[in-house]
Design goal:
This protein is of the alpha/beta class. It contains five helices and five strands. 42% of the residues lie in helices and 21% in strands. β3, α3 and β4 form a beta-alpha-beta unit.
Length: 116
């Protein structure tokens, strides 16, 4: 599975990729949503995994733009800074799944497999 992963925390990004790479996941990583949007214009991905709290364009804005451009995109939003009641609103804007940090590697892997 080819994943576009947007995470501005270098340590978190590397940990996630280190854990999931042996399971066969391939990552293209960006630190911001604007760069991710540019990559989406020129490359195809099986899934988009984005943090919601990003500099400049937020992950939520990226989710909405992506959903408008590609109705069948598989999108997972992830954040440690949202309330549980916001999850439904994020899904309405286009996320297939919303995960709340902290999340274990097993939980993340299971969530990604559920969209495969």
């Amino acid at each position: 599975m080819n994943i576009l992963y947007i995470e501005d925390d270098v340590d978190v990004a590397q940990a996630v990729m280190d854990v999931l790479h042996p399971e066969g996941y391939q990552f293209t990583h960006t630190y911001d949503a604007e760069t991710a949007w540019q990559k989406l214009q020129s490359q195809q991905f099986d899934l988009i995994l984005t943090d919601l709290n990003l500099p400049n364009m937020t992950g939520l804005e990226l989710i909405q733009k992506t959903r408008e451009a590609w109705a069948d995109a598989k999108i997972v939003g992830i954040s440690g800074f949202i309330e549980a009641d916001e999850v439904d609103r994020i899904k309405l804007l286009g996320a297939n799944l919303v995960l709340l940090k902290p999340i274990t590697p097993a939980e993340l892997s299971q969530a990604l497999r559920s969209l495969a």
